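Form 7-S
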Amino acid sequence: MSPNDSGLKIAVEKPRTWARRLTITVPADRVQRERQEVARRLSQRLKLPGFRQGKVPAQIIERRFGPAIEQEAIERLVGEAYREALRQENLEPISQGEIENVDYRPGEDLTFDVQFEIRPEIELTRLGGFTVEREKPAVTDEEVDRLVERVRAQHAVWRPVEGEAPVNGDRVVVEITPIAGPTAAEGTQPRQYEIFLGEDQAFPPIEEAIRSLAVGEEREFDLQLPDPESEDEGATREERLRIRIVEAKRPELPELDDEFARSVGDFEDLAALRARIREDLEKEAEAEAERSVRHRLLDQILEANPFEVPDTLINRYLDRIIRPREGADPEQIAETRRVARPAAEQALRRMMVIERVAELEGLHATSAEVDARVEELARRYDRPVGEVWAQLQKSGQLAAIEEEITENKVFEYLKSQSTIT
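Output:
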């Protein structure tokens, strides 16, 4: 326990790496001075019958308000002593301090404990010497074909389907009414749904029923549908539904030729469109390969430098990513947080390592680097730099750009310390 200029005695315990418990002792004479100050302020504003304001004798104030004076003095001293102890021990809490075991008897020292969490000082003893294999991305003709077909589908003209049943690829509007089963109730009204058949937007039995109807036709079906109340993943329950097709439309795809390529962008012919698509896919594959290298490299660094993450940081992270709707079941929210906790903890470890390496190696983004990125964006979108800067700052993206630059510098450094094959 160490004394200091304020007269406090402070004992520091470390229950966990990132937790601190302080036992703080306030000298009796300081408690008495604070008690007298509280009583003095009370006497200045106190009005009692037979006495002028500010002239009530001290013994009467003590007799009538002694316990309240003592309680206020202790509360004030606990707050002041806690803040002083943090400054003197150079501690920066990331959680609210929990005050406990307050002990005081008149004429004696005041003692209390306070527990809180601090941001852990991460010791990174090994940052290099790892080996990570970079995947060789290869874009196939089939991948290019699929994306070309997707572009083609985006430019399709939708024609009404009449006199026949819809097929996969058609867009249908259907009315579904529960007739019998768990979801049925007296007076249940039909609900309309828009469904793209063949894209798993509805349960397979429902899609099969829809494909058996012509536009305008209505029929009742007994279907085996997944049972959401069963713990068995494959469990089903029978429901009777009335299904009517309100309308159906079928895509009419444009011809896949040079004219189509020119209609979707600045392409000379279909070969140029396919070349651009392949280039974009290759860039995406390279970016994914880089993300994989970074992920696996960081995992090895974390394995070589294990550390704990404070509960406070984990809970704050979960608060940001899990935002339940109003009225949600508290037990379900708690279960969601429990399941998400390990991934949240690992994500925080990664972020903390990146920040620590940036700090140790001086790799934080500079103002000049951020300015250069903003100027690049302004040129790309042909807009004034000041306008782009203001919009990025307003939307919070300026900070994201700074973080991205810092992260890129950190990983370039980390990769230089290891072998990337």
